[in-house]
Amino acid sequence: MATDNPAKKHSGEHIARNVQETALIAADLLPLMLKSGVVSLEGPLGAGKTHFVKATALAMGITEDVTSPTFTLLQSYGVGGSRMHHSDWYRLESESEVLALGLEDYYGDGMMFIEWGDKFSSILPPGTLRIRIEPHLEDAGEVRVIRWSNH
Ligand SMILES: Nc1ncnc2c1ncn2[C@@H]1O[C@H](COP(=O)(O)OP(=O)(O)OP(=O)(O)O)[C@@H](O)[C@H]1O
Ligand SMILES: [Mg+2]
Question: Which CATH number is 27's domain given?
């Protein structure tokens, strides 16, 4: 359960009313993401997972154009401390297909973002920050509910 002490907080919830607010929330959560090192982005098709990663990359100072890795499966950006890797498990059908990507070699080398990480949550590394983005039930427009947990 969330508490008022940020050091003890293990989950949180934010409402984004538009794409810009999603980007602001991504920037706010950056310290938490950096602490975890690995972030699983979850939620339905078109929820805004890639948008969230693009915004986080900008907040990290990465100026390269971040594109969806749905087909490339893994893309890397940045240099040194601002290095970032972006994977997408949407098209993968088994844990062995994920393991064949060799992501272990990238964990710890900057940030790792994984879209659809909940497909194979048992092989997400310990300490992964889970971020779920969902369209707001009562609003068909740009409103998103963004929930994070790091149990
Ligand atoms: N509040 C919002 N936050 C994020 N994206 C939003 C928001 N409102 C509208 N959008 C739009 O929703 C779309 C989200 O697309 P995006 O590729 O980021 O989704 P995705 O979750 O990565 O989808 P996929 O599962 O196909 O990878 C974008 O076109 C974006 O402009
Ligand atoms: Mg995507």
Answer: 3.40.50.300
Task: Reduce the DSSP state of residue 24 to 3 states and report it.
Answer: helix
Distance CA 27, CA 60 (A): 8
Atom of ligand 1 nearest to the CA of 45: 25
8 A C-beta contact, residue 146 and residue 25: yes
Give the pair of three-digit tokens for residue 131.
Answer: 């971020």
pLDDT computed for residue 2 by the predictor: 45
114 falls within a domain: yes
Pairing of strands 84-88, 74-77: antiparallel
Report the mean per-residue pLDDT for the chain.
Answer: 93
Phi, psi of 110 (to 5 degrees): 80, -160
Identity (one letter) of the amino acid at 56? T
User: Helix (H, G, I), strand (E, B), or coil: what is residue 17?
Assistant: coil
pTM of the model: 0.94
Report whether residue 87 contacts ligand 1, using a CB cutoff of 6 Å: no
- Closest approach atom of ligand 1 to CA 22: 3
Domain count, the chain: 1
